[in-house]
């Protein structure tokens, strides 16, 4: 059977970074002192990763760039209170997840103004369901992940596309370990259901 872990590797697993380095601590201190160009180093280092994470959570919405800008602004404002026991990358990812949740809420409010409550309640799976049976497996996997409800999509993306361990995920998602385990288990179950045809093809 096709494993979710192998599927994640097809979408370029991003390896976790080590704990905060002296250079990171020094960089944060320089930013807090107001040194010109210091924050630009954080933008250069993490902007693409933030955009990728936001895109995977939101389904590559055209407004992902706006979310990235909000994340960077929040990070700049919040660095003065940064807890150095937390890794910078992990902290930025937590901000990103929270901003994506806020964005989804705003998007829901806008959509409710234009569609009926019945239509709004339907999950947008049409695009994935209409894909050609001959398209590449990695495309099918991305679509399956994109179609997951948000509370399952977030942990699945962090675990299988970013290779994160449980402690990091708990810090980023701000949930209990039991809740994380349930969401990961349910997320895997939903992916297996959505990718059932691919699993059959591989075992045929």
Plain-language structure description:
With 204 residues, this protein is mostly helical. It has one domain: Orthogonal Bundle (Rna Polymerase Sigma Factor, Chain: A), CATH 1.10.1740. Helices cover 70% and strands 0% of the residues. It has helices at residues 4-9, 22-32, 38-58, 64-78, 88-112, 117-120, 126-129, 137-146, 150-161, 166-173, 177-194, 196-203. α3 packs across α4 and α3 crosses α5. It is globular and about 55 Å long.
Oligomer: single chain
Q: Can you tell me the CATH superfamily?
A: RNA polymerase sigma factor, region 2, helix turn helix motif
Mean pLDDT: 75
**How big a fraction of the residues is strand?**
under 5%
Shape: globular
Distance between the termini: 10 Å
The radius of gyration over CA amounts to: 19 Å
Order of helices and strands: HHHHHHHHHHHH
- Largest sheet report: none
The CATH class is identified as Mainly Alpha
Features:
mainly alpha; 70% helix; single chain; disordered N terminus; 204 residues
Compact overview of the structure:
This protein has 204 residues and is mainly α. The chain contains twelve helices and no strands.
Question: What topology emerges from the helices and strands here?
Answer:
Layout: H1 4-9, H2 22-32, H3 38-58, H4 64-78, H5 88-112, H6 117-120, H7 126-129, H8 137-146, H9 150-161, H10 166-173, H11 177-194, H12 196-203
Helix pairs in contact: 2-3, 3-4, 3-5, 3-9, 4-5, 5-10, 9-11
